[in-house]
Design brief:
The protein has 26 helices and 16 strands. The protein is α/β, with parallel strands linked by helices and 655 residues long. The protein is globular. A six-stranded parallel β-sheet has the order 3-2-6-7-1-8, with helices on both faces. A six-stranded parallel β-sheet has the order 11-16-15-12-14-13, covered by helices on one side. Strands 4-5 form a two-stranded parallel ribbon. Helix content is 47%, strand content 11%. About 2% of the residues have low confidence.
Length: 655
């Protein structure tokens, strides 16, 4: 692809990003505006025009999945050799390279979990802790380290930030534990994930020879999700730069949802002060979501804006109209889970892929009810944040067998069929087993590998060696293939992902905002968390809450304050989830849905692309007798009138 062809694939604002190759650049990119597309094309354009050497570019992301996706996109643009890594992965690689030269010997072992050492540190300083307290204290140690707050400054720092200490412990006690934790760590000769960044940054800052090597190799930096950078990550980035300004950052202040881990949007908002003369480009064209979803997202942010605050990015929808946002109040949590599971089962029956549906909620514990309800409904699911795909034993066994079959595979058989022959030995079959259980989970994982083989073959791969190489790269980046099941995830875990259909559940006071959010800053972060959830939806968005926790108890819950003025019918929630309006003809509505299902199957398309639920309900309510009357139904434009008008009128006329 030529340099000009790269630019032809972009809109004007994305093109401005791609051509801003030098000097500091700040890209404010709203949800769904194609920021990854813009920055990968920027890198590719810089390479194509000779401004960049691939090996001189370091693109930094916050998740291994995002780094893997960036590498795949760059490869698709014909650009190899660019390093796309997380902060930790990039720092760990540099630390491993320089440690023998600077310190001598092999680097210390990396500590995967803080909890055991935190528990030992607590015992040494006389703190009485249980499992929950250890977890909270470990999180606090992590916050202090990423915030560059040493033990000696901890008491003053939490006081200045009005930050509550974990587990009811005094700030002085937490500070003593932090000192003890470092002692235990040093005694055992291990380092934690924060040390990787601290030690790498210190080597660059204190050793000129190390700095010369790092800065000599990397001359151009791109940082994605810059609103979530912590002081520690910013410190490492400053050492990489060494006073230079060849930096492009991309972020959205409205998606800052990790301040509890030390992230701060101030680095993004103050970028122009840190890098004078920086170009600022705003991406606001939303290619992900329908106008119905985008309108709600915009209104959610505007309703929370305080006087004098800068205006948040207002997205401009680029997609055609979709189904209206659906709002439902259920009697209790059990009814909400069952109602959503029933809605999902119907969507799947109408042709929506389960992997394109997500149920999102504020806390992980809420997911248990949806697991049970989906299992009862016979719908497969996967819990995001559970066991990692490549950590599964059956997946590891399958990769070993695929690697062993590289030489023995029949060359006259296609690569996907050779892969399936191997996968049959570890639980794959043409037809899936029962909807839930260990056998189905194993089948889902093997099916994901089989589908990946199909995708690679479609892209030109011909042998199992290419499939194994792709799996090895994905495993190193934790970039799992898509598993065919409904995603259950917390709102935090959903960041960076998107689905055709999103159910936002549990939208009541006390859950969102969560009751622990007491300060104005914490409440605004909860609002941003809801905004992130809304903007995960491409086609269909369903919002709900339960009036009571358990069946039969008093319905005292109210919808989240963030939905004041947004919930339809003057803020009164529709109860129970009853589907059609009272005026709709049930028999006609059933006929219309049956017709839509048949038409979708004939076209091999999702049912909602034929006609949305709201359009069917309006037809069943209005019972139009002419094309002119049918044209008044929202969602039935000239194209659909021409394609389906006579069929719809015939269904209405039937008795």
């Amino acid at each position: 692809m030529s340099a000009d062809a790269l630019l032809d694939a972009l809109d004007p604002e994305q093109r401005a990003v791609a051509t801003a190759l030098t000097g500091p650049v700040c890209v404010l990119a709203g949800a769904g505006t194609g920021k990854t597309r813009a920055i990968t094309h920027r890198i590719a354009y810089g390479v194509r025009t000779g401004v960049y050497k691939p090996a001189s570019v370091l693109a930094v992301t916050f998740t291994a999945r995002a780094a893997g996706e960036m590498r795949v996109r760059l490869r698709g643009l014909g650009v190899g050799g660019v390093q796309a890594r997380t902060f930790h992965a990039a720092a760990l690689r540099q630390l491993g390279f320089f440690w023998p030269k600077v310190v001598g010997g092999a680097p210390p072992r990396l500590l995967e979990k803080k909890a055991p050492l935190v528990a030992e540190a607590a015992r040494r300083v006389g703190l009485d802790v249980d499992r929950i307290a250890v977890r909270d204290l470990a999180s606090e140690v992590e916050w202090a380290k990423v915030s560059l707050v040493p033990a000696d400054d901890y008491v003053a720092a939490v006081g200045a930030a009005a930050r509550p200490t974990p587990g009811g412990f005094a700030a002085q006690e937490v500070a003593r534990l932090m000192t003890s934790y470092e002692d235990v760590k040093n005694e055992r000769g291990v380092i934690d994930f924060e040390d990787v960044l601290l030690l790498t940054a210190a080597m660059i800052a204190q050793r000129r020879d190390v700095a010369d090597v790092v800065r000599g190799q990397y001359r151009h930096f791109v940082v994605d999700e810059y609103q979530d950078v912590s002081p520690l990550q910013q410190y490492l980035l400053d050492q990489w730069l060494g006073g230079r300004h060849e930096l492009c950052v991309v972020g959205d202040p409205s998606q800052t949802i990790y301040s509890f881990t030390g992230a701060s949007p101030e680095h993004l908002l103050g970028f122009g002060r840190t890098h004078p003369g920086a170009a600022q480009i705003r991406l606001v064209r939303d290619y992900r979501s329908t106008p119905q979803v985008v309108t709600l997202a915009n209104r959610l942010l505007v309703s929370g804006r305080k006087r004098g605050e800068p205006s948040p990015l207002q997205l401009v929808a680029q997609r055609p109209d979709g189904p209206p946002v659906r709002w439902t109040a259920y009697d209790d949590d059990e009814a909400e889970a069952a109602g959503i599971a029933a809605r999902i089962a119907r969507l799947v029956a109408d042709g929506t892929r389960p992997s394109q549906i997500a149920v999102l909620y504020r806390t992980n514990v809420q997911g248990e009810a949806f697991e049970e309800a989906l299992a009862t409904a016979g719908v497969g699911y996967q819990v995001r944040g559970g066991e990692r795909f490549f950590a599964r034993r059956d997946v590891r066994d399958a990769i070993v067998l695929l690697r062993g079959a590289v030489r023995s595979a029949d060359p006259s058989v296609s690569m996907p069929e050779n892969a399936r022959d191997v996968l049959r030995t570890v639980g794959w079959s043409e037809q899936p087993p029962a909807p839930r259980g260990a056998a189905r989970e194993r089948w889902d994982a093997m099916q994901a590998l089989a589908t990946l083989a199909d995708d690679l073959a479609a892209a030109g791969a011909t042998g199992l060696a290419e499939l194994v190489a792709e799996l090895d790269e994905r495993a190193s980046a934790q970039h799992a293939p898509v598993v065919e099941g409904v995603t259950l995830a917390s709102l935090h875990a959903a960041k960076g992902l998107e689905w055709d259909v999103v159910f936002l559940a549990g939208l009541s006071e006390g859950l969102l905002p969560i009751s622990l959010a007491e300060t104005p800053a914490a409440l605004e972060e909860e609002r941003r968390l809801l905004y992130v959830g809304v903007t995960r939806a491409r086609e269909r968005l369903e919002m709900s809450f339960a009036r009571a926790r358990t069946p039969g108890s008093r319905g005292t819950r109210k919808a989240s304050r963030f939905l004041d003025g947004l919930w339809p019918s003057g803020g009164t929630a529709r109860a129970g989830g009853a589907e059609p309006p009272a005026a709709a003809d049930p028999a006609l509505l059933a006929r219309l849905r049956e017709w839509r299902t048949d038409e979708a199957r004939r076209l091999d398309r999702p049912a909602y692309t034929v006609l949305a639920d709201r359009a069917l309900e309006d037809v069943a309510t209005l019972r139009p007798a002419t094309i002119a009357e049918l044209a008044r139904v929202r969602g039935i434009g000239p194209v659909k009138l021409d394609a389906y008008g006579q069929a719809l009128l015939g269904l209405v006329a039937r008795r």
